[in-house]
Amino acid sequence: MPSVFAVLPGLEVPVSDISKSLAGMWSAEDASGPAPEEVKATQVNFVLHLGLQTTAGDAAAQFQTVVRFSRRYPSRIVVLCPQSEDEDKGGMEMRAKIYGECHFGKSKSDKRCVEFVMLNYSRGARGFLENQVSICLSTDLPLYYWAHRFSASAKLADYRFLLSRAKRVLLDSAIAPADAFSYPWPNPVALRDLVYSRLLPVRQTVGQFLAGFAPELVIDGLETVTVTHAPALAAEGRVITGWLGRRLAACAVGKVEFISVEGAERTLAIEFAYAKSGKFFRWEGDFGTGHAHFTAKLGEAETRLAANVSLLAPEMALSEAMFF
Predict the structure, then answer these.
(1) What pLDDT does 1 receive?
(2) 94-104 and 11-13: which strand pairing?
(3) Do the Cβ atoms of 183 and 157 come closer than 8 Å?
(4) Which DSSP string corresponds to 286-300?
């Protein structure tokens, strides 16, 4: 099975020659096209850290997510690939690859190019990583750090230079350690959950529907909130439950019981139960079909409404977590 570093695209170069090799990579392009500073309109520094639980196939998929993200937000991107136990021979090894890609914006004259540096390193060489990453990044741009599939919060804490400097630290609570959002990180206000971000369409559609009713109609007599989720959507169920709790608390609702229940595959559902007989609110979405529906009786009349449902695409969830 190929290693994470091996499966990523790019040309392997000596670590000491990264900057020189990047400049050479664009020499042919520059000779027949726009000047380098015109096509590499970098907006942010982005570090993708592929933890030891990342498989080769997963690494390739996340790399393509970052590529798609960079087409919208040109970035200077560094991909960290720590060596697995099978790869790490106990030395001070560090290897590098460079990769570049150009694409057109709204017109053929709007050409943008991005650069990637992949760093593969042994545990012994980790002490030199901060210096090497700093060399690869632009000093005058904000840094965003995505830690993907790390095995333990305490191990990720060793990368304090990234955790403390990053404007946003992106984690995915569906695959992160259980204590990822309670661990004492150096800059906890920078943490963002990708599960919360990819639920944006659900939060918007449910929020907009409920906003059509007076707040007192929504909270009066509310006793229980039940969130039903497919087993594979347990993280989404947990996050949407937390979001509902915060929104209802903002409406000064009284004591409400929250219940989590497993449901059918690819589904997520929300139900409000009230003390008053006949009053209810239900929303159910099927991410397999992309269909959702509302049924509610919060006033005198019952309301039924069909809607669409989806999760944000991974590259869009990245931008949502980073900038909003």
Answers:
(1) 75
(2) antiparallel
(3) yes
(4) ETTTTEEEEEEESSS
Work out the angle at residue 69's Cα, subtended by the Cα atoms of residues 33 and 30, and round it to the nearest 5 degrees: 10
Domain segments of the chain as ranges? 4-193, 199-308
The position carrying tokens 């907006």 is: 43
What is the per-residue pLDDT across 26-48, written as a single tens digit (0 to 9) for each?
A: 775 554 554 455 555 688 999 99
Q: Would you state the structure tokens that stand for residue 34, as one six-digit string?
A: 């726009």
Picking from 160, 54, 120, the residue whose alpha carbon sits closest to that of residue 169 is: 160
Distance (Å, whole) CA 184 – CA 97:
33
pTM value is 0.94
- Cβ burial, residue 90 (10 Å; 0-12/13-18/19+): exposed
Cβ-count burial of 43 within 10 angstroms (0-12 exposed, 13-18 middle, 19+ buried)?
Answer: middle
Query: CA 241, CA 42: separation in Å to the nearest integer?
Result: 38
Contacts of 319 (CB under 8 A, 6+ apart): 69, 72, 73
The three-point CA angle 61-63-67 to 5° equals: 115
Q: 246 with 257: CB under 8 angstroms?
A: no
Render the burial of 271-284: b for 16+ CB within 10 Å, e for the rest.
bbbbeeeebebbbb
- How far is residue 311 from each of residues 70, 160, 208, 269, measured CA to CA in Å? 20, 31, 17, 14
CATH topology of domain 199-308: Glutaredoxin (3.40.30)
